[in-house]
What does this fold into?
Amino acid sequence: MSYRPQTPDDNSYMIEMGDKYSHETSSTGGSLGHDDHTHWRDSDIDRVARSRFVTYFNRLVLFISILSILVFLYESRKPLGSLGDNPPHRLDSDSHQQKLNDSIGQILHPSDHIYRPPTTLYYKWRISTGHRRPDGVLKRVYLVNDDVHHLIEARSGDRLIIHVENAIDNGEETVLHWHGLSMRGGNQFDGAVGITQDPIHSGESFVYNFTIAEDEHGTFWWHAHSQTQRADGLFGGLIVHAPVFEDKNALVDSQPEVSEEQLLLVGDWYHRSASDVLAWYMRAGSFGNEPVPDSLVLNGHGAYSCSDAVPARPLDCEQRQQIGLYISHNTRLRIINTGSLAALKIRTPGNLMKPLTVDGGIEVEGSDIRVSEVGTLWPGQRLDVMLASGQGGLFEIEMSRENFKYVNPALSFNHTFPLEWSPVSEFVATKASTTNTLNLKHLTPASSVALAPKAEQTIVLYSLTQKLSHLRNIPHGFVNNTYWTPQSPPLISLNRTDYDEHQLVPFIRRNTTVDIVLNNLDEDSHPFHLHGYNFYILGTHSTTFSWGSWNPYETEESPGGPLNLQTPIKRDTVYVPRRGYAVLRLTADNPGVWMFHCHVLWHQNSGMAMAIEVG
Ligand SMILES: [Cu+2]
It folds into this structure.
């Protein structure tokens, strides 16, 4: 926004008034003078000196009077009702707003949603492509209504009706998924291609129509769920604010310590089109090495160092300056890893972060946690933190080297954003440390639970990427020896007997509790995302000596030690470490066919996906 209302303390105003009055001063002063340059005697000189003194004295008196008038005029311009406001505060609030508008963080508007009753929000989206330079490098990206990263803000209980038109020029299909929402009663709008819907063909439209649950709020996001469009920018934030409008007669402030909210969509970025990247991976010559990204973008911005480009891959690159993050005290940062492969560490040297929630509004016990580094956030995962202190400095994001199997000389692991604080801050954390690190794996929930030792059903899964000769040594992702490809018509419209050989879909009886033991036989880790559900993470395990897997039907005791039945965190996207497993517990109370897949785009698109059917 370029509009900035003029305030009395604007310099331009002062200069204009000063000029006007200095002119009047000079003419008045002239009339009081008695300069006579015809005859010169000593007494004349004395008289002239005295006269000049009187003149200067009068001018001084006049200047003070005018200054008083100016101050009076200035005071009288203050708006009514602003008693106690001082002009510097008003300047601060204007420049504060301007700096917020210029911040790389996407400004959220909770107050537009938390005090109103649930409603229906309508959107009309036209999906197309265009060439942009997110990090300075020209690339074809996906657009919604000619813009990137369209944001949805809502409150619990809202109904969303999104009319999506596929206007992508080259005949590509698309579908959209609402990551983390339970989609209760709306399985057919979940946007999982081949499972809950057929793709939206070029030139066609589809209307997504679903209601956010009354008890659902938090940091969600929408993204393409067909082909590789997510990696070329077809995603955005979907923020569901917790209402304080619980009782029409009472407003309850549920977030008293949070004053502002900003959204950070941050993830790895490839300079080639994602379909080229996938084609590079899905050939024998990649030897199963996942493509290492080239860059990182935050809310569609980055500052790629053009000199890092390698001769083999010349780039159309313009050098950019990194955009800064402007933070006032008590700001809630909603951080989403929108990337395709890289896990992220987030650092605020000299400042402190307090964890609030993970994934879709799962509150964590963070009352004593003040850290300057959190990690690692995997693709698909979210983290809300409150940023405290005001030491200025930097906001840093480091890509984890985990899952990078070769060196990409074009990539910088660290991306640094200038961090500027609001000048007025009475809340300064005193426990500042630059070494405190929070491992997100160790988070516990805000309130403990008491889960049964055993679920009613246990599903054992084995995930693995393989290069098999009958698949021409092209790397494929498998779960239990099935590699997924989308089926048409989608599973939701078929009898189970009509599922093809690429569908692994265990059946779960409604309202039963289920444990999923998800083994990972790979040398790298997989962030698995389940649609339609949050699940408890009862335990994770990783080893260097064996496969690290666990089959509870063979050995009752898990190699990673007893399951956590008291303080397991809930999530919708779980990090499953290499040579290990994760044990997940859910109550199957949301009927439908729900996709379960690795959120590393290259693994998902090469087959590491399945579904559960709750009926
Ligand atoms: Cu994976």
User: Anything to note?
Assistant: The chain has five helices and 32 strands. The chain has three domains: 11-92, 107-442, 457-614. The helical segments are 11-32, 42-76, 87-102, 274-281, 601-605.
